């Protein structure tokens, strides 16, 4: 064997070995089967099946930015202590919010099984006043993180944290931002509710509730006896008429509201709502109001009666005008009006002007909220930017 033959033999052997290794390196394993997310259109747009289950899930929410100005009593303005000389200054009342919502739905042999959650994250300042209108330091900080909804519903039965049907079943009080200058209810509570559809436009609800303590009103039940709410509604093409009644088990008081909605035209809709509540046990033996100032969980307005009215006019698909006027037995009056403009789908700017007059301001006969301005009449406004998804 000469050197030339030896070299050719060695090269052939190296090529064979390299080829075998190269063949091993490019061996491709069989792909695993992929499971893609499937659209679920049973419950509306935005739902998809949770992989491996029959449960449909939707995730949504909004980003909101509010800038309020004016008198503190209008619920829009704020006060702050001047950092240099300690004087009281008026300032913007701002709040940024991230709202996260989830919905689930699944069909069962007992009906549709649904859940809903809503959590709110806030950053901004507050009214910036304590006592009788004296300003305090009013920094913009991370504020509350609140669980606003967390309920389960099977068929008509709903349990968990919800807004009381005393407010949401009847339809709140208009489409203005500040719809509670004359308050119509306190929304948050744990519930065991049952909704039913009687057909022919009739529906109803009955709810056992825990209540909550909000805005200085002691509304949480103090025994095993729950608050009780009932409601009936008739709805037609022309509008709707709704009534709700509530029993406050803590104070053994009764309150109710009746609302009429009318669709005047495709562009114009109007509503009027009246409320009445007892307050005998909300006063002491001498007739003076106790710590809740004569207001209960289901009668947060002043005196026995209150009324709200207003409506919406749609100029076009993007622009609407909303107005609400309200008054109560305690000579409190309020007016709110705004224009909401949808720049692009999902992004709306609302500009609102608010006015209120407090009839028994500071005399101890009504629910004086000392975050209000030191005068009977207040004016303010708010600009809201909201991106919903």
UniProtKB/TrEMBL annotation:
Listed InterPro entries: Porin_alphabac (IPR003684)
UniProt-annotated location(s): Cell outer membrane
Signal peptide: 1-22
Domain of life the protein comes from: Bacteria
Membrane topology of the entry: Multi-pass membrane protein
A Pfam family matched in the record: Porin_2
Domain notes: Consists of 16-stranded beta-barrel sheets, with large surface-exposed loops, that form a transmembrane pore at the center of each barrel. The pore is partially ocluded by a peptide loop that folds into the pore lumen.
Name used for this protein in its record: Porin
Keywords in alphabetical order: Cell outer membrane, Ion transport, Membrane, Porin, Signal, Transmembrane, Transmembrane beta strand, Transport
Known role: Forms passive diffusion pores that allow small molecular weight hydrophilic materials across the outer membrane.
Entry's family note: Belongs to the alphaproteobacteria porin family.
Keyword Transmembrane in record: yes
Record SUPFAM superfamilies: Porins
UniProt keyword Transmembrane present: yes
